[in-house]
Write a structure and sequence with these properties.
about 300 residues; Arc Repressor Mutant, subunit A
Length: about 300
């Protein structure tokens, strides 16, 4: 078998990432027939189908999944190496795709992005505000920001913020009506405004510190939400006890709209981390954003 053309592999990975031939065509800025033809040529070369096609969707076959898993990271590394070689002596330019949760945008990134865009006018910054934990390579992102340093193999994490407490709180009206819990055990008499992770479709466990040890606390739910703004609104309305990162609730504490509950028992989460594929910093356009953010860590 002759060597596989670079462009055919790029098109295959884009179809897998976008979930459709038309999506890949848009992402690569080429025609849909050209994408379809390149895929047919690649499948003919390999002698196996890479996708199962129907009128409604396109799905990877077992061979396609194997190729994506094994070739995806290698292709990304090769692309970055080629880009880095072409970057020598040039002004950073091109598109940089960043993903981050809504709370990270509000707490950290909102006052920074305009400065970055003005400093690097030849970089097209694309920001996706998404609370899901995304696979950067599969989703086509250059880097992301999220809590903690637990990352997939082949990724690099760089801390850009200190640990943050996970606060419990309620409105003054709620506490006047239901009483203020003074022990972890007393929380059983209260109801929690619960958060559901969108991607995993799981409820966020409530963990508190008891004599320095982490314990999981079970409470009845007053409401279940998948949006942090709704979490705060529900707590302000006195529907139950809310929980969110303390820095994002501090203004409500200062204004008296919400009241901290059981503060000595709050757990802390690892700080914000910038994460990106190994070798990504070799591309000048990506390294520009990495260095920019690393020089501006979150200060609480």
């Amino acid at each position: 078998m002759s060597r596989l053309p670079y462009s055919q592999l790029e098109i295959f990975l884009s179809i897998a990432r976008q979930g459709s031939i038309r999506g890949a065509a848009r992402a690569l800025a080429i025609s849909a027939p050209s994408v379809s033809q390149a895929l047919k040529q690649l499948e003919a070369r390999l002698g196996v189908p890479l996708f199962l096609r129907s009128t409604r969707k396109i799905e990877l076959t077992e061979a396609g999944r194997a190729l994506q898993t094994q070739a995806g990271p290698a292709f990304e590394a090769l692309s970055l190496a080629l880009e880095a070689a072409g970057d020598q002596g040039q002004v950073p330019s091109g598109r940089v795709r960043l993903t981050l949760p809504r709370f990270v945008y509000r707490l950290y990134f909102r006052p920074l992005f305009a400065e970055f865009c003005r400093r690097y006018p030849q970089i097209e910054l694309e920001v996706s505000v998404d609370d899901r934990a995304l696979d950067l390579i599969d989703e086509g992102f250059d880097l992301g920001i999220r809590m903690g340093d637990r990352i997939a193999e082949g990724m690099v994490a760089r801390r850009i913020g200190p640990p943050m407490p996970d606060a419990l709180f309620a409105s003054p009206d709620y506490l006047a009506r239901e009483g203020r819990p003074d022990t972890i055990a007393s929380l059983k008499r209260h109801r929690l405004i619960q958060y559901r992770f969108i991607a995993a479709n799981q409820l966020a466990p409530l963990e508190l510190l008891d004599a320095g040890e982490g314990v999981r606390v079970e409470m009845a739910n007053a409401m279940v939400v998948n949006d942090t703004d709704l979490m705060l609104d529900a707590a302000r309305e006195g529907l139950g006890i809310g929980r969110f990162l303390a820095p994002l609730v501090q203004r409500d504490f200062d204004d008296g709209l919400l009241v901290p509950v059981l503060k000595p028992h709050w757990q802390s989460y690892p700080g914000l981390h910038l994460y990106f594929p190994q070798g990504a910093q070799k591309a000048r356009r990506v390294r520009a954003l990495i260095d920019f953010l690393a020089e501006r860590p979150l200060v609480l």
